[in-house]
Each structure stands twice: as structure tokens, then as C-alpha cells.
Amino acid sequence: MPRELADLTSAQVLDRVAGGTVVWPLGATEQHGPHLPLSVDSVLAEAFAGPIAEAFQGFTLPVQAIAARSLPQSGGGLSFPGTVHVGGDTLVRFLREALQSLFRLPLGRLVVVNGHFENEPFLFEALDQVRQEGLIGDREVFAFSWWSLVQDSWLATETTDFPGWHAEHAGVTETSLMLHLRPDLVTDLRPDHDRPPRAGVYLHPVDVDQITEQGVLSSTSGSSAELGEKLFSHVIEQAVAMIRDGAGLLSRKAGKKEQ
Ligand SMILES: [Zn+2]
User: Fold this and answer.
1) Does the keyword Metal-binding apply (predicted)?
2) What is the distance in A from the centroid of ligand 1 to the CA of 29?
3) Which of 104-113, 115-124, 171-180, 198-207 bottoms out in mean pLDDT, i.e. has the lowest?
């Protein structure tokens, strides 16, 4: 049976998604230094989406790979070629309209897995606009950036000098995940930048050479496929537990489909 929503026929889709889970990966096409492809955020969001959908016998949507712009303090910014993006106002409108049509389906739960740091506020805004329109009703929504599910205890055990997620752009965690999932797309270069930028600070003008090393904001040394595999499993485990427990939701409707 197809696990991708778009592989269903129109005649099948209403029955198959009724009360069930749909997982939408949201990525980007963004520079990730000289060692990783532009597709990192999309590859990772899509890779996380598959097992999450599977755990709930749900369906995945195709990854959305053109999204928010790259900012210097969290993505190296647009001085590096290859980032293909839309402005935040366009992104909110795009997401809102896509969500409006998606919620016309009788799905019971939407999970959005975000892989691109700068997408998050626009995603949450679009979801909330759709909620305000009354299109979601009492259906469940879990939208998160994958790194938000990484436990502090995991970071304490598995990493040293963690620079913060904004600075992990193209750093040890993304490099390790890519070495685990798509080693064919990772080059041998391992640039290190010893002064990660501050989070939540907008600067102009920006000296790109001060804030990055070839588009890398922190360090890549110590990346490994083994670490990537551990991180991948950790995030999947956390995501499935959160969705299954309904963590953060006020109540669970009796009789709601638990898959
Ligand atoms: Zn990234």
C-alpha cells in the first residue's frame, strides 16, 4: 500500500486518510558549507518524516524544498550561492494556502517536520492563521523543527561545546546525520569556525568571514555516521513518543484513533 499521500488515487484518498496521520516535511535549498549539499534541510526533514509516518500507519507529503531565506547568523546568509528561497510573507501565504487545502481532507492528525531553522516562525504563523479560520477544528497538529526534540541529556552525553542550534548550521549534527543518511553527498572537507555567532541577533552590515568559515558557523570536526545514526534514532524516538502521548495537548478525545 502506498505510504506517500500523492501515490494514492483520488478515489482512494478520502477513505485512506480518514482519521489518520499525515506527515509533511518542510526543508530548504540552502548553502551548507563546502562539504554538504544544498539539500541538507530537505533530505533530513524527509528522512525523519518517513519513520514517523510509518509509526502511525500514516502518509507522507512530498518535501517542500523551497522555503525561507537563509540568514547570516543562522545559515550563513545569501552571500553564499545556491540558496533558493522565497520571502517570509510569500512563505506564510504559500503554507497557509497549502494547509487550507490539506485540511479539507478528513485526516485526524497533521505532523510537520521542519528541517530549516528560518522556516519555523513562518510555519507556526501559517498554521495559526488556518486554525483561526476554523479549518483545523479539534484535529491534532504537531509542528516542530527536528532539533527541538533533541534532549539536553543527549547533547550532554554525545557532544562537547555545543554552540546552540542556530550555529549548528552545517555543523557536527547536520554533517553526522548526512554521513548516516546520504554519505554519497558529503565531501571530505571539515571546516571549523571557532566563534559561533550569537543567537537572536540581527546585524547589518555583516562581515561574512567573521561569522562563518566557508558557510559553516561552528565546527564539523568530530562528525561521524555513528553519531548521525544515534541522533537520527533519538529524534525519531522522541517524535513518536511526543505524538503518541499527545504531549502538550490539553486533552485527548475519547475514542480518537490512536494510530
Ligand atoms: Zn541545515
Assistant:
1) yes
2) 9
3) 198-207
Determine which one of 35, 85, 166, 169 is catalytic. 169
**CATH of region 5-245:** 3.40.50.10310
Q: Work out the burial of residue 129: count CB atoms within 10 Å of its CB; fewer than 13 is exposed, 13-18 middle, 19 or more buried.
A: middle
Give per-residue pLDDT as tens, 71-116: 998 999 999 999 999 999 999 999 999 999 999 999 999 999 999 9
Is residue 35 part of the annotated active site? The answer reads no
Share of the chain above pLDDT 70, in %: 94
Task: Verify whether residue 174 is a known catalytic residue.
Answer: yes
In total, the chain counts a number of residues equal to: 259
Q: Does residue 32 carry a catalytic annotation?
A: yes
Does the annotation mark 116 as catalytic? yes
Of the residues 35, 174, 180, 193, only one is catalytic, namely: 174
